[in-house]
Design brief:
47% of the residues lie in helices and 15% in strands. By secondary structure, it is α/β, with parallel strands linked by helices.
C-alpha cells in the first residue's frame, strides 16, 4: 500500500491523469451526439493505452536500468555480429479462430551469440536503438524474411505472409520503400507475402514522415500491422493516422481472459478493440494466447485471428516447414528446439 501511495502522489500519476483528460475531453466533444454504446466503445479503446501505462508504472517497467558489463559487450559487438551472420529468425504461427488454420507467421529475432548462446531481443534491441545498428538490423530482417520465403518456395511448401518488425528510426527513412522493393525483387517475392509490424508503443519522432513511408509501402502491396495495441501513448491517433491493415491486441489484455479471477475491464477493452477494428474495416489479432480458455473467450468475442504458445511456439525455419505443409498446429502446442521459454517470450 505504501508503494501505491507513493506512486499515486508522484509526478508519473499526474502526467497520466493529464493524458487521460487530454484524450477524454476531445472525445466527449466529438461524440456528443453519438449513441451511448459508441461513446463507450471508443472511450475504452482510447483509455487502453493509459491502463497499460499505469500497469507498467506500478510494476516498475520501463525505468532506467543499470548498464551491465554484458550489455556493453553486446553493444560493442552488434555491428560485427550483423556482418558475421549471427542473427536469425524464429517463426511463430498466426491462426484463424474458426478452423485454427495457419494464416501467417511472425519473424522473431534471435542472436545466436558464439559465447552466450541464443539471446532474445529484450537483451539487445534497446542497445541497437542507441546507434545506427537498429537500422542495419532492421534492413537485415527484411531481406532475411524475403530470402526465407524464397527458400520455402523452392522446397515446394505453400507460403503464408511473414511479418517483420520495423523500428521507428526505419520508418523515418524515406528510402525504406525502395529498399523493401529491391529485396522483394531480388528474391522474387510477391509484396503480399511480406508484412511490416509497427510497435504502437514506439516513439515516432516524425509522424508525418513515417505516415508517408508507410503509405508508399501499402501502395507496393505490403500489409502494415500495429503491434502491441493498447500499450503506447496514442493508440487511437496511430489507428487514425497510420495506413494500417491489422491491429494486434497486446497480451497484457489477454493474460487473464477466461480465468476465474479475470478482470471485466480486460474483456470490455478486448471487445471494444475488436468492434473498433471491425468498424474501420481492419483485421484484428490477439497476441499471447496461452490456454484453451483464452482461445474460447476470444472466439466468443468475435476475434478472428490469434497467436501464442497454446497454438504454436516460435521455432526455427526448418521446424516451421512442417507447419507450412500442414497448415494447422500439430497437437496445438509445439515445443521449440531450444527448450522451454518463459510465457511472453514468444512476443520478443
Amino acid at each position: 500500500m505504501a508503494r501505491l501511495a507513493r506512486f499515486w502522489h508522484g509526478p508519473r500519476t499526474r502526467a497520466l491523469l493529464c493524458a487521460a483528460l487530454a484524450v477524454c475531453l476531445p472525445l466527449g466533444i466529438w461524440l456528443d451526439d453519438a449513441q451511448p454504446r459508441h461513446v463507450a466503445l471508443v472511450g475504452l479503446a482510447a483509455l487502453a493505452p493509459g491502463c497499460a501505462m499505469l500497469w507498467r508504472a506500478l510494476n516498475g517497467r520501463g525505468g532506467t536500468r543499470m548498464v551491465s558489463a554484458r550489455s556493453r559487450e553486446l553493444q560493442a559487438r552488434l555491428d560485427s555480429a550483423i556482418g558475421d551472420g549471427e542473427f536469425c529468425f524464429h517463426y511463430q504461427g498466426k491462426f484463424d479462430t474458426a478452423q485454427l488454420r495457419l494464416v501467417g507467421l511472425e519473424a522473431l529475432l534471435r542472436w545466436d551469440h558464439p559465447r552466450h548462446g541464443l539471446i532474445y531481443p529484450n537483451a539487445f534491441i534497446g542497445l541497437a536503438e542507441q546507434t545506427d545498428a537498429i537500422v542495419a538490423l532492421g534492413n537485415w530482417g527484411i531481406d532475411a524474411a524475403c530470402r526465407q520465403l524464397a527458400q520455402w518456395r523452392a522446397a515446394g511448401l505453400p507460403l503464408v505472409p511473414v511479418a517483420v518488425n520495423v523500428s521507428a528510426r526505419q520508418l523515418c527513412q524515406s528510402h525504406l520503400p525502395d529498399f523493401v522493393l529491391r529485396c522483394l525483387r531480388r528474391h522474387a517475392i510477391a509484396p503480399g507475402l511480406l508484412e511490416l509490424e509497427v510497435t504502437e508503443s514506439c516513439c515516432i519522432d516524425d509522424m508525418a514522415q513515417a505516415t508517408q513511408v508507410l503509405r508508399r509501402l501499402r501502395a507496393l502491396g505490403l500489409a502494415i500491422s500495429l503491434d502491441d495495441y493498447g500499450t503506447g501513448h496514442s493508440g487511437l491517433s496511430h489507428v487514425r493516422m497510420l495506413p494500417i491493415h491489422t491491429i494486434k491486441i497486446d497480451r497484457c489484455f489477454i493474460r487473464d481472459l477466461g480465468s476465474a479471477g479475470s478482470a471485466d475491464s480486460d474483456t470490455v477493452i478486448v471487445a471494444s478493440t475488436i468492434a473498433l477494428a471491425r468498424g474501420l474495416g481492419l483485421q484484428v489479432l490477439a497476441e499471447g494466447v496461452e490456454n484453451g480458455e483464452q482461445l474460447a473467450r476470444l472466439r466468443r468475442l468475435g476475434c478472428p485471428q490469434v497467436q501464442g504458445f497454446y497454438l504454436h511456439r516460435p521455432a526455427s525455419a526448418a521446424d516451421v516447414a512442417a507447419l507450412l505443409a500442414d497448415g494447422a498446429p500439430a497437437g496445438l502446442v509445439t515445443v521449440p528446439k531450444h527448450g522451454a521459454m518463459r510465457p511472453g517470450v514468444d512476443a520478443q
